Amino acid sequence: MKPITKPLYRVDGVHGLFADAAAWDQASGELFFISLWGRDTAIQELLARLSLPAGQGGFSSFNLTASDGGKTLISVSNPGRLDKLSGRMPTANLFGALAHAWVFVPSIRHPDFAGHRALMIAQGGGHDLGLGDDAFISDAVWPLFKDASHLPLLDEWRKDVIRVAVEHGWLKCHGGLAVDVLEIDLSAPDYETVICDLIRAGQLRLPGESSPPVHSDNGGGPAENADSPSPGNKRLTGEGLESHLCQFSGTENWYRHGLVKGMLYTDGVKSFAEKGGAEGAYWFLDVVATEIFPLLRNEPFLSIVLSVQGRKATVKVVDGNCQMLWEKRIDFTDMQTGDWKFYLTDNVLLLPGEY
């Protein structure tokens, strides 16, 4: 059987101390993880010198030197935040009293789910986040990514979400020596907006949803009237939809939103979503569920108005005292012109006539 060999890197400045794996922030050089081998006194010396000022023999960085003389600089600006796990080799071995220690940042061991951040060690190094290493992403990265996300994510979205996460820098791979560290940071202010936009655009679809309609450019000609049905299109005009919704004075059924399970909606809202726009207005329910529904944590009653003029729309939310809480502009819609009003209370989205 061929023996397994693994390179060792000398820790400069501490006699008899070596590392067989390490990873650091590729931008700052800050240490994420290092695996150390040596006598216990050597490991303790390194940790002690990292905490001492330079005038007392301490240092805030050190080099790992390979057998060919190549050096890698590792920085440790805050040694107090590092955790350590250590053990000893059996005394009856070729090297004598040898200790092994892992030194690492705490978020590798205990992800900050409240802050939507996580780190994980990936053994081997050279992992491809460009979806080339799909099995690794599916088995290791995606479960942790979902745990760190405050938005619910479907497994069917994995490839698209990971691709977008890499593009926006929410998911990074920090290469190292023998290992990589994957960094997930979903605290970015644009994370929720981008994911919600992908859902509304139909790039992330709920189970059973068909592909979104494709709106072609008419080459600069006059835009179609949003309230004028095209030949063969049976959708209601704005006045027709308003008259139709006035029929709802209560609901016999409650429907659970497919993405945000805590939000329910009524028969009237379901009919609005089915008959609004050229191909339905379920996108509006997604806006309410992902962006407005969280406001119920602080306000028990919300009044929502979707105002449509031509191809543009605005969604406004006020509380029970008519104080403005939230507003969003929509640059393109095929929704019928009008002011479409809804109430959101007790986790239920309903029409005013159903209240």
From TrEMBL:
Cross-referenced InterPro entries: DUF6876
Protein name, entry field: DUF6876 domain-containing protein
Organism: Candidatus Methylumidiphilus alinenensis
Domain DUF6876 residue range list: 241-355
Pfam name, any one: DUF6876
Positions of the UniProt region annotated as Disordered: 207-236
